[in-house]
Amino acid sequence: xxxxxxxxxxxxxxxxxxxxxxxxxxxxxxxxxxxxxxxxxxxxxxxxxxxxxxxxxxxxxxxxxxxxxxxxxxxxxxxxxxxxxxxxxxxxxxxxxxxxxxxxxxxxxxxxxxxxxxxxxxxxxxxxxxxxxxxxxxxxxxxxxxxxxxxxxxxxxxxxxxxxxxxxxxxxxxxxxxxxxxxxxxxxxxxxxxxxxxxxxxxxxxxxxxxxxxxxxxxxxxxxxxxxxxxxxxxxxxxxxxxxxxxxxxxxxxxxxxxxxxxxxxxxxxxxxxxxxxxxxxxxxxxxxxxxxx
Length: 294
Prior knowledge:
Structural class: alpha/beta
Strand content: 15-25%
Order of helices and strands: EHHEHHEHEEHEHEHEHHEHH
């Protein structure tokens, strides 16, 4: 669109901000001609079984040299940047629910019961890193057994189909699981970060963050109005279910404050302790981050 900066966005789908910003024209108001990369988004919902790091759906835009704004958990984003996939945007972060679910007939009733139980996760993504983060309070690390199932919907399907005993879920699958009669064993929160190619236009990234902030204010003012937009986060496998979006939470919320610099070092320490640091290369803060101010 003439006069606007074209920007491609791969929404996480864990919150409503992207959907609200697009529906209300907040991206356009920030001078952006925003396009959602739904191929990457749907890929992150699918199974990643057998896929190695760098081959996951969210890795593909960087392998292909595409200019896409994405988001992931704080560990995934920082590790991806260290491994050479994009730069961390440290000017804002998200806060999202996370949970480990089992079926209603499961013998597992508390976090300690998950000792040596395979837990379905998406390899080296938020559903993976949050498992040791929160289960270490209840179990020794060697008793925590994440297994790679893949994306958002793939983990919920695997749990429903009895392929796994437990699964790490994020929004909106947390609320979907509750409506389907599944049971949470652990519920907590974690932070997310956005990542962009080193070549991204600063004006585009600033406009994107400003659009998310506009959406955040709209959500805080009238959440009920926007809950039906969760329909955009539902994968085709679950599209025929009669979801009651009025009972969904808001999912990830946007925080327009800098991600603490010292917490980057905390992330590196954590992934080393969890033995998830094999692909790290450059840990220099200035090399990992994208400066939107200049």
